Amino acid sequence: MKLLAIESSCDDTSAAVLDGERHILSNIIHSQDSIHRPYGGVVPELASREHIARIIPTIDEAMRVAMVSFSDLDALAVTYGPGLIGSLLVGLQAVKGIAAVTGLPWIGIHHIEGHLSASLLAKEPPPYPHAALIVSGGHTLLLRVDDFGQYSFLGSTRDDAAGEAFDKVSKILGLGFPGGVALERAAKGGDPKAIAFPRPMRSGKSQLDMSFSGLKTAACNELSARPIKSPAHLADFAASFIEAVVDTLVEKSMKALKREKLPGLVLGGGVSANSRLREKMAMAGAERNVFVHLPERILCTDNAAMVGAAALCRLERGERSSFELTAEASLPIAFGKSGLNKTPPRCRRRGLREN
Ligand code: KG4
Ligand code: ZN
């Protein structure tokens, strides 16, 4: 079994080849960071143009590294939503084109299910049931995962996603894009306790919901009151801001585990590449005797291998997509267990973001 998977939902063009045992034979990621950097956020029109230019070379490269040709493939997979519509369309049309010519079966995958499935690529995938925290530029979502495909909503951000908060604060500081990476670099050697940023929504009724826009405002106010005056001050500021976001994510995740009586947590999404988050979440898990599964960093940010992992599970169940499938900018994730169902949050992906 050989599968070619494609991911193009935002600003990364990625193609991967996996075998039936979920071994990654190739996972090529063409990042558009340098194109969007001058704007401090993803410009949707530029993203789709770049996807069009890169999609075929990226697929070719994935096939070359995996040493396969189209005749060796058994199936295809692609992210069909949520995401930037122009970006999604490029990957989806590429897969439809290959499927039309080769007759290969194919399947469309939900982007969040892709992030959740990065954990399945580990040598020892986490057991079910577990909680999952998906933290990216477009989402901050806590789920209960009873089995592959069986998701229940536990909580989410009420406003900005955690990655969005990093991107916005980085832009205000003039540090560049993607903000999470730039802030992490700037925070080196900084004191995470130097500035006491708020930890929003600590208490209250919606125990598992989060909010990051107030924190962003607090960062702006702090900068107006005390502008950055030295590299050491910048490091303290960045480390303190990261600490506030990380503390919120850790606290809410641990609350979810306790409330749902779950044995562990799986992380996914670009922000889960953050060192401080990985360190503090692992520590919190060890203290409470629950497992914390951290996918490899390269599998946290957008990539096609995670889409392939989800696709293998769905294809195994006999699921297939048809040519009627369209790209969806906004796509709720299917919630499996009745009773625990809540109205799913509308999954939102980012475009060029305002301060
Ligand atoms: O999952 P992803 O690649 O794309 C989306 O689905 O949005 O996540 C991108 C987000 C960006 O907001 C970026 O700033 C953040 O993940 N990010 C990080 C790190 N690497 C990427 N945030 C914190 N620390 C990092 N090391
Ligand atoms: Zn993503």
In the CATH hierarchy, what is the superfamily of the largest domain?
ATPase, nucleotide binding domain
Taking strands numbered 1, 2, ... along the chain, how are they ordered across the largest sheet?
3-2-1-4-5
Structural class: alpha/beta
Distance between the termini: 47 Å
Largest sheet: 5 strands, mixed
Number of strands: 10
CATH topology (fold) name of the largest domain: Nucleotidyltransferase, domain 5
Q: Treating each run of at least 4 consecutive H or I residues as one helix, how many helices?
A: 11
Q: Which architecture of the largest domain would the CATH scheme give at its second level?
A: 2-Layer Sandwich
**What is the percent of helical residues?**
40-55%
How many domain units?
Answer: 2
What order do the SSEs take from the amino end to the carboxyl end, as H and E? EEEHHEHEHEEEHHHHEHEHH
Shape field: globular
Task: Output mean pLDDT.
Answer: 93
Molecules bound to protein: 5'-O-[(R)-(carboxyoxy)(hydroxy)phosphoryl]adenosine, zinc ion
| CATH class identity of the largest domain | Alpha Beta
Name the beta content range.
15-25%
Low-confidence stretches: 336-355
- Which radius of gyration do the C-alpha atoms yield? 20 Å
Please describe what this structure looks like.
The structure is a single chain. The strands form 2 sheets. This protein has a 5-stranded mixed beta sheet with strand order 3-2-1-4-5, with helices on both faces. A 5-stranded mixed beta sheet has the order 8-7-6-9-10, with helices on both faces. The chain is 41% helix and 18% strand. It has helices spanning 33-36, 44-66, 85-102, 111-117, 162-173, 179-186, 213-225, 231-260, 275-288, 297-300, 304-316; strands spanning 2-7, 12-19, 24-31, 75-81, 106-110, 130-135, 140-147, 150-156, 264-268, 291-293. The protein is built from 11 helices and 10 strands. It is globular, with a radius of gyration of 20 Å. The protein folds into 2 domains: 2-116 and 301-349, ATPase, nucleotide binding domain (Nucleotidyltransferase, domain 5, 2-Layer Sandwich); 128-294, ATPase, nucleotide binding domain (Nucleotidyltransferase, domain 5, 2-Layer Sandwich), CATH 3.30.420. The protein has 355 residues and is α/β, with parallel strands linked by helices. Bound molecules: 5'-O-[(R)-(carboxyoxy)(hydroxy)phosphoryl]adenosine (KG4) and zinc ion.
